[in-house]
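User: Hey, my collaborator sent me this sequence without any context and asked if I could get a structure. I don't really work with proteins. Can you help?
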Amino acid sequence: MQTTNEVVAKGVVERSFEFEADGETVPGILWRPEAATGTTPLVLLCHGGTQHKRTPNILGLARRFVRHLGYSAVALDAPGHGERIVDHEQADARRRDLERRVTSKSGAASMERSPDDKGAARPFVAVGRAVREWSTVLDHLEKEGDLVDERIGYWGVSMGTMIGLPFVATEPRVAAAVLGLAGLSGMPGGEEREAAARRCTVPVLFIFQWDDQLMSRQTGLDLFDAIGSSDKAMHVFPGGHVDTPLYERDAYDAFFLRHLGR
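Assistant: No problem. I've predicted the 3D structure and written it out in structure-token form, which is a compact way to encode the shape of the chain:
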């Protein structure tokens, strides 16, 4: 893993890096407390579809976990996202399609896509590749030895849950996960998602929007029900896919403190 840049601002060290996985260069960011003198708990942050590792939500959460909890945080550009976009026309079509769906006033799980949105109906991401990349970045961080300890959490909603469920279900180093804004249908890979959910046994906080335009209420409830953990909670809010209130971040803090400590 090669460092490409490092800056310090308001007590947070932000280190950009890249590594090779399955023949591709994967760019990422590691955030650390400036005052840290040893290992810290770590939260892995997975962005949503059409977003990237520096999207405002990811940046806000990373800096919050560093400043409020004394944790470290890591984000990667998922395959086909951020610096890894190869087909910009297709990426723009997917972004337009998603924006149209999440700004509609009705549930859009069965909403017809525009024929002009080339490739929009295809899966947002190569889930298997993304899962392997998250395990690879943990391998690299472990080799550095003095950065993070065995207390590792995962945060990822929407596409972050499509990646996160199979990752958390198969990665024994992850101790707790915040997931949500996803269901068993309305997104590609429902059968695989259900199988991964049933294998997921770590504590889970599941976030859901009651009026989500991308899926029905029932499919979100079905996914939560399928999660195999005996320690799980579902927080449901009114509003659409992007309307989760900012105060829910207090619940993220409390959840990770409970399961990862300080």
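In plain terms: The longest strand covers residues 12-21. You can pass these tokens on to your collaborator as they are.
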